């Protein structure tokens, strides 16, 4: 009996903790929700934007509906000398409809600008937030340190406390979501060919050719099973299927979109990125010429050779590593999310012909991508169809490396 499609793991409510003032946090939540929306995720809720000063020298505050862009003024006009809370409960109540609408539509992420004074007393947006949490919708908000106890009480401690930096939000969002992220970036196109060789598979469109390593031995492949399916439909298997061959074809479809001939970057072997690293270097998977390029590296492999570590060593060697090189097969076999979590703090490179060459991966904890772009497509097709491996089709393309921009 076939397994149901892979679903995203649930998220505990995320609370960005901050000290007095929340201006930087407002911008952080605003930017994060806008980026997820740009990537195709369904994001709803409210972010806060401040403008000013107003007539009484106080900033004008507004809540903005993430989905529609509608703004709600929540500023009380209390005068220059007032020390009272300037948030207008009436404006907040009006804006709360945006949250109820988002919850009813089952958004991928609900953003609520803050859990603060009103919410700490059970007012403001507290009911809407707790309803979303109860329905399993991922909720992201901000909490001033003075209201932390009230937030913990409201959620029963079922939450993740986040630092006010972008990387913390992306770690909370989780690397499992990278698969859906990449699929949403694929422009649909007619698929010209799907080839399943003994070692590799490929998907070709008019604009590009992508490859991926097989995760299971060839056994009676039926090429007609892919007939008539579009590129985005095939790519979705990388995020949804549990069948090893379907996942491989899905990754190849992703690469047919992202590893197009117009991709530019630094040429060369991805392992050379860590040649000058003085700290611990860990390599996941076997690579040609590994011993020569990184003689001090700790190598972990599913089928370890003499001097290599078994897969269980990941939890011992990756924490505290300075650099980690991961084979692209980890993306295809879905072990990459776990490896990225265990490698937090290390500089991570994904290397291999099956690497999707897209900056979308950088926010999930990958710093460099070294992948393959086909040049002589017919030669690559012949090689893979004939059962050849990566060494055989490498001469018919070029290896390209992309780096995460500094401070991104």
From TrEMBL:
It comes from the Bacteria. It holds the Pfam family DUF4213. SUPFAM superfamilies: Dhaf3308-like. Gene3D superfamilies: 3.30.390.100, 3.40.50.11590. Residues 278-401 form the Putative heavy-metal chelation domain. InterPro entries: DUF2478 (IPR018912), DUF364 (IPR007161), DUF4213 (IPR025251). Residues 179-257 form the DUF4213 domain. This is DUF2478 domain-containing protein. It comes from Azospirillum oryzae. The lineage of its organism: Bacteria, Pseudomonadati, Pseudomonadota, Alphaproteobacteria, Rhodospirillales.
